[in-house]
Structures are given as C-alpha cells and as structure tokens.
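Lab notebook, bench 4. Still working through the backlog of constructs that have no structural model yet. Next entry is a single chain of 298 residues. Request: give me the structure tokens for it.
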Amino acid sequence: MLVLVAPGQGAQTPGFLTPWLELPGFADRLSAWSEVVGLDLITYGTKADADEIRDTAVAQPLLVAAAMASAEVLGVAPDLLAGHSVGEFATAALAGVLTPEQALSLVRERAQAMAKAAAVTETGMTAVLGGVEEEVLAAIDKHGLTPANVNGAGQIVAGGTLEQLAAFKEDGPARARQIALSVAGAFHTVHMAPAVDHLRVAAEGIAPADPRVKLLSNADGEVVTDGAVLMRRLIDQVSSPVRWDRCMATMADLGVTEMIELLPGGTLTGLAKRALRGVRTVALKTPDDLDAARELTK
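Model written out:
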C-alpha cells in the first residue's frame, strides 16, 4: 500500500525548485499557478534567500505548488494521501476534493491571514525532542502553551507567546531538548483564530467534491470520505493542533508499506523511518529521486 505525503511549512530551502525546472512542463505549470497566487513562484523557489521564503505568505503557496507539481511529474496512483499542515491542501487537490487552482487560492488567503494574525501578538514555536510524552504535554499545558504539532517519533512542537515559551525553556520537561523554531508565529493555536474566520469566508463559494482516494485528516488521523467535512477540517486546522502521530498510526493500521514524500521531501520520511519501521520511503528532493520513487511502486 502506497501513501503519498506532502510536507508543511519549514520544509522549503533556498533554490529547491531549480533542478525541477528542467523537466518538461514544470516551469509552465508553476508560471500558471503564479498567476493564481499573485507570486512569482519560480523566482521564490530558485533565487530567494531563506528569509524571503520563510515569510508565511510566500512559503505556504510555494510548498503547495511544489508538492502538486512534483506529484504530477511523478505520475503514480497512491492508495492513500496525507499532508502535514498546509500540505493538506496539496493532498486535497490530489484527491480531487479541490482543483489545484482552488487549493492555491485558499492557501493564498490562508497564508496572508495567518501572517496578519501572527502580527497581533508576539508568538512563536518550540520543538521539543525526546522526553516522556506525558511529561512533555504536562509541561506544555503548565505554561499555557499548545501542543501545536504532535508529530510522533518523539517530536512535539509547542506554540504560544514568547513570554510563555521563555518560561517553558527555563522550566521544561526532563530529558527533552528544546529548539526554538524560526517561524512567524504560533500556528495551529488559538492565536490563529482570526485567520480561521477569514478562511471560512474565503471558502464560501467553493463546492468541494468527495475524495477519489483515501485521505487522512490532521485533526485525528482518520480517513475522511466527505468533501464538505474535509473542507471544514482544513479551515479549523489553522488554529487546531496537527496530529501527525495519529496519521502515522492510521497508516500502520491500514497496512502502508511504501511512502513517497512530495517535493520538498525529507521531513515526513524522516519521521516515518523512526515511527513506521519496515515501511520503505523515498523523499523527492531533486528529479534524480523520481526513478527510485517509481521503482518503489512496482
């Protein structure tokens, strides 16, 4: 059983699109989608520096476009789809719930609204690696933080105000390492509530279709079969925790044997190697990875 997964914000690196533009049709596709989002995706994916593509309003459309374009050139039919955070918009399009253009239009609105919400209060996110999960979650709760990403494989990301995060750093869980993340704000927490309202209005004119492929939801890791339900979850996801641990648990329950991570791959296959032992993985980083990914499906 093959699952295609799409990474979320933070997976982008300067110049990651450069080698892909040599593939027939890839640049044309990105140029067309650039018109949809009002950004020059090719320039951002080839010439922009790390700070420029860290900007939420740029990173999110760039990641979704890259994932969809790489899936198109890969050309394999998955048994299951799952996206991490904004990656869910890419997999929603791949499952036929949204058109690529609808997905990108919503992501543009999502990204701009999240950037605006992040500017209201000084917030941030800290990755917590290791420790006992119950103790980590208890420490996060003690300081009024939110477990914004529960990624599995010993990785939880806490989100909240900078003051809360500073206190958490001084009085954190035992045997756990903390890494402050370079992000614009506390995504997937209550601080993003204004962005939820904005996205709900932006989605009013869209009639989602039911998924053509089994599709997992970040909310609880369950398979979603109703397009309208998925749309509500995509909207609510902005201020709700990402439960990637539960997505991987469902993958195991369903008998996933192969995983391909769409461009820019590496993060989710890294988690799978620790949490889904025995599952064969390929991460799409350059076009050289396409043959290995296709071979995985034979």
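Notes after review: The chain has 13 helices and ten strands. The CA atoms of residues 34 and 40 lie 5 Å apart. Flag for follow-up if needed.
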